Amino acid sequence: MSWGTYMRRYGTLYLLLILPIAFFVIFRYTPMSYILLAFKKNNILVPPWQVPWAKNNGFEWFIKAFQDQNFLAALRNTIFLNLLDLLIGTPMPILMALLLNELAFPKYKRVTQTILYLPHFLSWVIISSISLRLFATNDGMINKLMGTSIPFLGTEGNWRAMYIVLGIWKECGWNTIIYLAALTGISPELYEAAEVDGASRLRKIWHITLPGIRSTIIVLLIMNLGHILGSEFDRPFTLSNPLVVGASKTISIFVYERGIQGSQFSLSTAVGLFQSVVCVIFLLLSNSLAKRFGERGIW
Amino acid sequence: MKRFLSLVLVLALVAAMGIFSTALAADDGFVDGKFTETRHIKVEIFNRNNDGGSDPTNNPFTEYIKQGMLEKYNVEVEYVSVGRWTEVDDINNLLATGEAPDICVTYSYPTIQTFADMGGVIDLNPYLTEYKDQLGDLWGLLEDYNIYYDQNPETKTVWALEAVLADRARLNTFIRKDWLDKLGLAMPTTEEEFYNCLVAFRDNAETLLGADAAKMVPYSTSTDIGWRNDLLSISKVPEDVDDATLYVYGYDDRHLLYPNYKEGIRVLNKWYNEGLVWKDFGLYTDSTAEDDMMKAGYVGAFMHNWDYPFRNNDDSIEANLIRNVGPDAAFVAVDCFKNEAGITRKYLADRIDRKVFFPATNKEPLASLLYVNFISNPDTIKFLQTGKEGVNHEITADGAYKTLPATGEWVMNSGMNIDYTITVNGLNIGEATEASRALNYSSVPAEIVIGAHEAAIANGRTAKHYNVGDITAETDVGTSLTAKRDALLTQAVSASVDQFDAVYDAGMADYLASGGQAIIDERAEKLLAVYNEAPAAK
Questions:
Q1: Shared-domain flag, residues B179 and B315
Q2: Are B111 and A263 inside 8 Å of each other by CB?
Q3: Which CATH topology does A44-124+166-292 take?
Q4: DSSP readout, B447-467?
Q5: Comparing A231 with B507, which gets the higher pLDDT?
Q6: Residue B8 has pLDDT above 70, yes or no
Q7: CA-closest candidate to residue B365, choices B102, B186, B175
Q8: Which residues from chain A sit within 8 angstroms of residue B483, using beta carbons?
Q9: Chain A residues within 8 A of B510 when measuring between CB atoms
Q10: Using CB atoms, which residue from B283, B487, B510 is nearest to A137?
Q11: Is A243 in Cβ contact with B491 (below 8 Å)?
């Protein structure tokens, strides 16, 4: 096909692309020029491109961050909490989707699903105050009912566990949506054939359902791995208290304290940039790994 | 070469004159203390979002200021509201986007220093010198001490004016007087007696609270241990501590680095492990849960701002106690934490409060200074602090101002309109001040307030102010060190007694390594350089 005919046939499609591309250029890529702050000393009065480079070939802030024990602690906490989330949090919605899928009455299934989605719409601020009333060491409802005083939120180890459990409580139901959508794509004929062969329920789940949603699981896993260094702000910030700061200070809180509260914009930009770069590397790595194992990956 | 040099000099002179004349040009048309053309300035105002409060940018009080400024100086005033509890974040954002008000107010000097280092703040020194004659009220209130408090001894720059702290009382220890009476105990006069009272509260929970005995909290505190335990901690500081030590180890406004401070925390840790302190204090990061316990009558004693249980009129802790428990229930102030010399020593705040500064985007420095002058005028302060007669106050037979619960637009969004009187904190209405202060709390008898105020300032000492210039180690670390301090103290108090030293020392090591030590070192070094003094303590 010649260039002319190609453009005549598909030209309107390219025209349609102009708006979204303009959006990305103006609102996503242009502001990115301020990434330069990571390599310069921030000055509110002068745009970053007019400021001279920072010390050590511009890497002053990166060096400063990695010499700062508080940043290293935040880095460790971020990775640790995210790994726990990945290991414990990822299988949960799959399990729940499988359970939901086995429910026989459609109406009951729909009601259950809706109830499971609801916690997703609560903000972390609300959840943290509810959890405090429930799990406080002495005044909390759970401890009062059991007649104990377990420091659910008061020691670092317990706090991590609560962080993960509350995360699952909030997002598990919501995350089943994608798996449930994938489940509907599995051909019913496969189940019928298995039944003819006398396969049990568990066998069907193992040999038909799980392989049917394998690629979805892997895509979501890749995306989650991309967030291994990313960190939410609301969740650790609202759940934290002074007793457990050793476990709860994540990179996002470090950036908030230093950048927004302490005006160290260059340092926090450097930390943010480091975070993004590592995330992209993880994303690329896990994607190529998935491809090597014969999966489609995400692009 | 000579010709070249003279050329350079001439050029420099011309350039300097150019800068000078543009600086003055902004103030052209200022005749007989008034602008010939109307000027416009923007002023920062805290927004507290109070229930039933008024618009902080537009109410009878702002109207009074706006009218006064227009009539007196021909300056139009516009208010820009900034969240009270997020002021530093908000100001940072406004400064960073170049939209800062012409007059900014903050409690955080490091914020100002950070922006001054970037060239984002106006040096007030030349303006203060040039317009001193126009600023009589400002000088009358602040005096040289507050005006030049932050002046750099070398460069002579003045980045900010320090507001006057008119009332330097900090905190008090409060105890339930009705409980003491019920148990036949006297008002405690020593730490030991205070401790015995707490033990008695704990052991007689059923007598005092009946069915609610399980809710008994003999002594309550919060994660801001530094503030909420100050009188006990400070009582462990040696009486003969020298000014240089108080300066070098005085960065933290909660006195964390003062010598022997740890021993006060050790006492609290012991009380905690004996079941005398609110067990769950470490989990709560806001004050509502604790306030509710005090209001419900479950708390026996606590330390807090000197007037804490009296604040908020009908919703004060005292008023709630009377409603919930009975007419006799009351918290009264006791002054019982003595140091080794037997004195209830208190380290009072210096005469400074908030800091007023002008960002570099301010094109009306004179008009802005005149605003600060106007707000420091005794009549302005009196009106803003006491409001309208018959609505906000009535005048008693002896000339004192008695606060009335105002309604509608006359409600003050902050106590005594502190948010508008940016150059003064605390009642400052001349001779009537002392008598009026006690009448400021409509739900509490005057003598209880007077007693509390006396206890709060009794044996007060103010650490000497050394002006050694900027301490660079203090820039940027403020909020992270505050968080470290609260975590370290909260963890140490909640630790078991045998773990106390390990937890406290590890926390302190972390605090020092995260910037605390650098501050101590720099303060010591500059103190030596400028004043040739060194701290006695190590």
A1: yes
A2: yes
A3: MetI-like fold (1.10.3720)
A4: HHHHHHHHHHHTTEEEPPP--
A5: B507
A6: no
A7: B102
A8: 242, 245, 257
A9: 69
A10: B283
A11: yes
